[in-house]
Amino acid sequence: MYNLVLFDMDGTLVDSGVGILSCIVRTLEDFGIYGKSFDDLRFMVGPPIRDGFRQLGYFDESQIEEVVVRCREHFAQNGMQGFRLFDDIVELLESLKAKGIKMAVATSARTTSANECLGNFGINEYFDMIVGANEDGTRSEKPEIIGHILDTLDSERKFNTIMIGDREFDILGAKAHGIVSVGVLWGNGSEAELTQAGADHIVDSLEELKLIIAPKAH
Predict the structure, then answer these.
(1) Domain range spanning residue 67?
(2) Are residues 122 and 192 in the same domain?
(3) Domain identity same for 73 and 151
(4) Closest CA to 79 of 121, 159, 23
(5) In this predicted model, what pLDDT tens digit does every residue of 70-82 receive, in sequence order?
(6) pTM for the full predicted model
(7) Is 218 a domain residue?
(8) CA distances from residue 76 to 18, 20, 120, 123, 140 in whole angstroms, order as listed
(9) CA–CA separation, 56 vs 140, rounded Å?
């Protein structure tokens, strides 16, 4: 059984895709870019938002900060309205907490946004840490975020730790620290993406996930 569980947020705990993608579409339209569908932009849900706008190829580096600020303005207005917890997430967290398992959130979203989001759902109390990017965009890569959590909660690396996420960035972040990774298929990534990244496990249900984290939990 694992005694330290790290969760990605967007696409793993929270179904946030519609809210985030709506903000991205509105931002692009502000800059005269029309016709992008959610499917075109879904790759941007999960990694640092600056990287997503860079990858689109519409903006030069001098514009990126302005674009990110505009996107955050849209998000602050109503970006979380479409968010919901994935089914049975609360039950999973309660089960793990009852067993004394430490839990943390490792997200590329800003820490302030992650705290607000999880607080809105009343689940931030389950986590020993909620760690994301700094306000200025630093510490936005998954290896940095996971490293910060491990340095704080497991400085001597004695815990049996597992990272759970829906994108390749979660899997690669776990590999950077030599911890086990689980890719989930209910989020924004594909089985092919997670397989190519080298996920140790890939699951499509919370029941499968429970069996991996705590085999005796049920």
Answers:
(1) 17-78
(2) yes
(3) no
(4) 23
(5) 999 998 888 788 8
(6) 0.90
(7) no
(8) 15, 11, 14, 20, 19
(9) 18
